[in-house]
Amino acid sequence: MAVHTLFPPSSLKSSFHQTRPPLSRPSPHRVTVIHCIHRPDSVHFVNGVGYTRADWQSSCAILASKVLSHQQPTDHTSGDVSSGTDHVASVNGHKTAIDLSLVPIKKEATESTNNGKLQKPLTITDLSPAPMHGSQLRVAYQGVPGAYSEAAAGKAYPNCEAIPCDQFEVAFQAVELWIADRAVLPVENSLGGSIHRNYDLLLRHRLHIVGEVQLPVHHCLLALPGVRKEYITRVISHPQALAQCELTLTKMGLQAAREAVDDTAGAAEYIAANNLRDTAAIASARAAELYGLQILADGIQDDSSNVTRFVMLAREPIIPRTDRPFKTSIVFAHDKGTSVLFKVLSAFAFRNISLTKIESRPHRNRPIRLVDDANVGTAKHFEYMFYVDFEASMAEVRAQNALAEVQEFTSFLRVLGSYPMDMTPWCPSRGD
After folding, report:
1. Where would I find the ACT domain in this sequence (predicted)?
2. Considering the entire predicted model, what is its pTM?
């Protein structure tokens, strides 16, 4: 059974800001400028059971045959492609005006090249799918080298080429633009709770969850060499890391202001780059090694059972199987609010399907629902989207029947992915 998307993705336009080392991908041509644009009419593939890699490669071949050899005009002031883009590609019967000119081709290059030969046209190799598991993958993560997300990427895909991104949004778009093959992003922590930003981005983008990895987190208090704890007046780190170490910092008698930054390793990098001798960072031991900092205190998380769950994202879904434990993630909503939640959960309970996660997020398109009662007045109810993880594979009949029943009670239902569970042995966080 295939559950189709009923909810159109919201429009998103943003530009790549390469404040970190530039993202790159192997290419026979030089990449000058990449405008990172998410289009509501962009190509996507149905998230259903039975779609094979061959079907997906055929769609890529259709796209490749539609690429025009001339470079499309670009409005550099807005970072968007000009409305003059009129070439249309058709994939599985759906038309799209997507611009695939990621590698600009000069006009004179189309007429002649070395030895008078015409330039080689794009082939399916230029738009090749991600390498098979075991090959070197390009994996995007949020942060800088030394971040916990980099460690999670290495655990999920050993020997991968880890690509740092300055924002979660950039990591999503790096995969969509073929700059990276996978993205590894955190979704929840055992102490700090859910990373809501990534839940929202899962709904806005057309990537699929293809796996999960759980990483024990071991925090350290870092400072420049020679700095003593009593000289520290400020501690900087990611908001989650600050929350996870608050009790320990208080017990240490550290009378220092807490300041949130984008990521843990970025805090260590900032201290080293600006020679801040009154500031400490909460980050990993690897970050201390990379940026030349000393460890003032080791293992400062409030609880040794500090684990962050990451999900792996790809452009295409994997085919669900039944030979190992699988987990499936969905998101749904209903026009009449939360009154349908009990019926949805019953669809899983009656089939003995265990739920491992349920998360509610405000409905972006309709955050408030008004209910008028002539006797009482007008009531205002918040509207929500519900994210649910359950332990079953979409290859199982019971999971297919459960979603068929859920679809009857909801106005919107989308399968984010059906993927193998992380079954690695768990141990409390510890130092390297």
Report:
1. 329-420
2. 0.65
